[in-house]
Every structure is written in C-alpha cells, then in structure tokens.
Amino acid sequence: MALASLAAADDDPNETAQAVAAYYAARPAVRPLAPMRTVPFSSDKKWSGAAFEGRAYVMGAGRFVMGDAFDAFEEQAGELAATARVLAVARVEGFDPDGAIVGAPALLGFVCIHDQIRATAAQTIGYFKDQGVSVNVISGDDPRTVAGIAAQVGVEGAEEYVDATTLETPEQVADALRRYHVFGRVKPEQKKQFVVALQEQGHVVAMTGDGVNDTLALKQADCSVAMAAGSDAARNVAQLVLVDNDFASMPKVVAEGRRSINNLQRSASLFLVKTLLSMTLAVLFVLLPWQYPFQPIQMTLISAFTIGIPSFVLALEPNKERIRGRFLENVIVKSIPGAVCAVLGVLAVNAVGRLALGLDYGQVSTLCVLLTAWVGVMLIIRLSVPFTPIRTALLVVVVGGTVLGATLLHGLFGIEPFTVPMAVLLAVCAVAASALFHWLYGVFGRWHEARLARWA
Questions:
Q1: In terms of residue numbers, what domain contains 212?
Q2: Single residue among 231, 250, 269 that ends a domain in this structure
Q3: What's the rounded Cα separation, in Å, for the pair 180 and 456?
Q4: What is the mean pLDDT of the chain?
Q5: Cα–Cα distance measured from residue 182 to residue 145, given in angstroms and rounded to the nearest whole number
Q6: Are residues 155 and 290 in the same domain?
Q7: Contact 149, 174 (CB under 8 A)
Q8: What does the pLDDT average to over 164-170?
Q9: What is the pLDDT of residue 76?
C-alpha cells in the first residue's frame, strides 16, 4: 500500500512513478491512500515522498533515503542493482517545512524496476563504435545498474564505472572522462561539466536526453538530441528531436548529415575556384595592358559544365564518409590548386600569345576559356575519386558538353577557329597546368592530412 500510495500521490510523475502506478492500476484490490502533503522528486535529493493520515513514506535511491544506515543493506542492494534499477521504500516520521525528512527512515523494502532495452540498441551502439565515436553513458541512477545496462548493449569499458558523487572538482571530472565511459549518480550540473570537459579535450560532443535534468547538458553540447516523448524543456533546447523515440534512427540521421556536409564541401570547392579566379583576374587585368580575356557568354559555358551541373549531381549523391576537419579549410584546400593553375594559365596564354605569337583578342580568349575548362575538369576528377557509375557519367557529360560548346556552338560562345600556334600553346599550357595542379593538390593534401592527424 505504501508504494501504491506514493505513486498515486505524485502530481508530476517521472517514468519510475509512472511504471509503479501502471503496475498497481492493474491490481484494483490495492487502494492508495489520500495524500495530505507531497514532496516531489528532485535530482539533488533523489527521492520523493508523501504524508498521509498518520504516516509518511519516501521512495528513492537507497543511499540518499537512508544515509549511513544504508550500509547494512548495501550488499543486498548491490546484488539487485546488477540487473535492475533499485529503489528503497521507507517509512518516516514526516517532513519539515523545507521538505527534508524528519526522523530516522525505517526501510520497508526494495523496488526493482527492469528497463526494457530495445532490440536495436546494441546494433546502434555498435554502429557508433565502428565509426570511431566514443560512447559515454551518464545517468542519475545507481552506477551498478547503469554499468549492467551499458554492458548489455555493448558500451566499451562498461565493467568499470564511476559514482559521480565522488567527483568533486572539474579536474577530477576531466580525468575520469579520459579513463572511464560509464557514470552513475550524475547530477544535472555535473552532466554539463562532463560536456564542457569533453569539449575542452578537443572532442565534438553530441548529447542525448529526455528529462529536465538533461537540459543544461543538451544546451551546452555541440549537437543535442531529445526524444519526442521526453520533457518539454528537453525538446525545446535540443537541436534534433527523434519523433519515433527510437535512438536506432540516429545512424540514418548521421548518414544524412554526412551526405549534406560532404557533398556541400565538394560543391563549394567548385564555386570557390571560380570566385578566386574571377577576383584575381579582375584585379590583375586592371593593372595589365591587356583586355579581360573572358566574355560573359564564355563564362556561362565554363560555369555550366564545370560548376553548375557537377555541383547539382554531387550534392544529391549518397555519401557516408566520416566528416573530418573544418568545413572552410576543407573547401579552401581543394580550391587553391585549381584557382592558382587557372590564373597562371590565363596569364601565360596572354603573355605568350600576345607578345610571342601575335594572337588577337579572340584567339587568346578562346585559349583562356578552354584552359580554364581543362583545370575545372581536373578538379572534378579529383573530387570524384573513387569513381562510381554516376561520377563517371558526370565526367563524360562535362567533357562532352564543353567540347560540344567549343565546336558545334563555337559561334555562340565566341570560340575562334584553331591555328597551329594556338594548338601548340594550348597543349603546352594544358600539360604544364596538369603537372602543377597535381603537385599542388598533393602538397596541400599532405599538409591537410597532417593537420587532421594532429587533431585526431
């Protein structure tokens, strides 16, 4: 009757109280008492209580309910905690005006609640382990119970756990996070400390939770995930809410995020090459004695087949590669080799073509267009490795479209007929640009990999 009365007296029941209430709802023979006063559950004291006519009861974590008197029952509770969440139910004299227990609690018994582990939980944890993600479990429950559940779903190092009540300083929290992965008796403010400590160690932290006591950590995390069935506070601060309340959806969410970011990085690299090329040439040709070598219609040809169509295809392609490094740096590293080669190629064509070969503006412009398109094709090839059927088809369309525009539609795009000097100059510049491009791409690639290795 004490347990049924406590569950029924809770005005804002948590999942534990709801489970107890549901149990006794199927047993109408047990009739709960009418409460005269209730003391709600809090993460600090870790128990709830209620006073009835002539008696008062509390239910919560044994150590927090019984204090030092719990030592006599520690072994029994420890055996139960290995497989279930264990709550102590005790009779007390009453509560003071601040809601604290009056008198010495008299233990009535233990309540064991078994959490239902989803069939997909171990598979989901395994997915994140395979992806190199370190999984930490932080809970307000008994660390032995938390460790038992963590071991069932395959959390690494679950056999070694920490009682967070023993962690008194930020330094102790940081040290524990380097060595352990399972933590129990964690207070709400400590959960935030855990997130901050991981961030200070250079980690990108994702936090999942569904209760009010998770809101501080959710707000601090780099990525916060809440369950739709969780508290309003958790849903409001979370960046992502799982409407099906199933953590097994996270691999799909991660895959979609990777597809978006990785493909956006590749598309941005193409756009940035054109931006850097246009800005640099605009400044240089204000100072040089030559006319700007591109006509607007020619930029349309280059943009369509080396930027627009490739970006569209690459943006929609599946991509599950793990995100590494920083977005802007990743984009710049892939863009600089193409931009440098294109600028130097245009300058070389203008200098040699005009000064040494005596080519007119139309001929120089034609060579600049084709050489810039060639650099764009080389970047697309680099971004497409490893090749797939879609990427191979994209390369065929890019090359075919550029050739079509330069031959059958040469009048529309201002492409002049080729002469022997033009062909020789284009071939030499294309070979030189290819060699320089691959050398620069390798240099920047190795530099970038070294930076990523230092961050890992």
A1: 121-250
A2: 250
A3: 19
A4: 89
A5: 10
A6: no
A7: no
A8: 90
A9: 86
